[in-house]
Amino acid sequence: MTEPMTEPAVLAVDIGGTKIAAAVVDGGGRILAQGRTPTLADESPEVLWKALTDLLDQVHAAAGGPSPAGVGVGCSGPMTWPDAEVSPLNIPAWRGFPLRRRLRERYPGLPVRVHNDAVCVAVGEHWRGAGRGHRNVLGMVVSTGVGGGLVLGGRLVDGASGNAGHVGHIVVEPGGPPCPCGGRGCLEAVASGPSLVRWARGEGWRPDEPAATGADLAADALAGNRLALAAVRRAGRAVGVALASATHLCDLDAAVIGGGVSQIGAPLFDAVREALGVHARMDFARRLRVVPTALGQTSGLVGAAALVLAGDRYWTGG
User: Fold this and answer.
1) How far is CA 60 from each of CA 10, 44, 254, rounded to the nearest angstrom?
2) To bridge 63 with a disulfide, which of 32, 107, 200, 287 should be the other Cys (CB 3.0-4.6 Å)?
3) 35-55 burial, b if ≥16 CB within 10 A, otherwise e?
């Protein structure tokens, strides 16, 4: 006979443009059960909602049906915060969708906390990952876009609208390429996966696949392709410039970098550290450690759970 769980466990969700992941996470940050389903981004709002709730039911049952202590969610933005009416750019099915309200209705009496997905990655890495033990950490996701979250003095900083730590829109190349935000020369416009592909194609990179992605470029870079490597190094330099600005402003201990582009590894991180050596000139800024995520693809789920399980440090939204 299975003993009932006495330790708190949380239903955690990570909602992105291509997949929804869900898990049951215990108080130590351990994942007891998890699953994923494709994001039905072009279906109706209710079809996508049903896919989410079916997945939550599946992982809850797989974990043995513990009484949840709450629900934590990371979702791509934009969203109103903390009310979490979500309108993810890459999920046309949801525009102004009242995600937090609907989850509260489904789980009455439980805390339901929703934040930006990149913020949840930063929280997860600070709570149980590569940022653990540091009080001042910038977590970054470099993928289809570039996002982040900021922990200072051991606590998540939300800012006036929940968008503090949005490092993807630090300008690293004034007058540079246009950014989806409407500006020019933002970090996202230089270092995101689509931006890398666009720049490399302009320089003459000719991948085997006509619809090549950042993953294809990364594979070519790791295989030694000159133009793919040049694109990765350009992105790394841009990340380093942004981190130099961020650490001069916030006096950081560590920057933790995740997302698909970060999986390229040494070619990217070497360029980041080289740029930091050039641009982070104050003695205190030279202390900054730049490391990859330790939790990999589960960072966002662990961070979403921490919104509930460690809410004294990571949640101010009421």
Assistant:
1) 9, 25, 34
2) 32
3) ebeebbeeeebeebbebbeeb
- Radius of gyration for the chain, computed over Cα atoms and rounded to the nearest angstrom: 19
Main-chain dihedrals φ then ψ at residue 24, nearest 5 degrees: -105, 125
The token pair at 169 is: 């829109």
Place of tokens 């937090």: 100
Q: Which helix (H) or strand (E) holds 112?
A: strand 112-116
The answer, yes or no, to whether the previous bond of 92 is cis (omega within 30 of 0) is no
Average pLDDT over residues 55-69: 96
Q: What are phi and psi of 292, to 5 degrees?
A: -75, 160
Q: What is the pLDDT of residues 160-217, one digit of tens each?
A: 999 999 999 999 999 999 998 899 999 999 999 999 999 999 999 998 878 888 889 9
Q: What CA–CA distance (Å, rounded) separates 46 from 125?
A: 32
- C-beta of residue 219 within 8 angstroms of C-beta of residue 205: no
CB atoms inside a 10 Å sphere around CB 1: 3
Q: Is the peptide bond before 82 cis (omega within 30 degrees of 0)?
A: yes
Asked if residue 113 lies in contact with residue 60, where contact means CB atoms within 8 angstroms, the answer is no
**Helix (H/G/I), strand (E/B), else coil: 216:** helix
The encoded tokens of residue 189 equal 């416009």
Report how far residue 280's alpha carbon sits from residue 284's, in angstroms, rounded to the nearest whole number: 9
- Is residue 121 within 8 A of residue 244, CB to CB? The reply is no
Contact assessment for residue 299 and residue 293, using Cβ atoms and an 8 Å cutoff: yes
Q: What is the pLDDT of residue 6?
A: 53
Joined tokens for residue 199: 């720049």
CA angle 193/302/54 to nearest 5° reads: 90
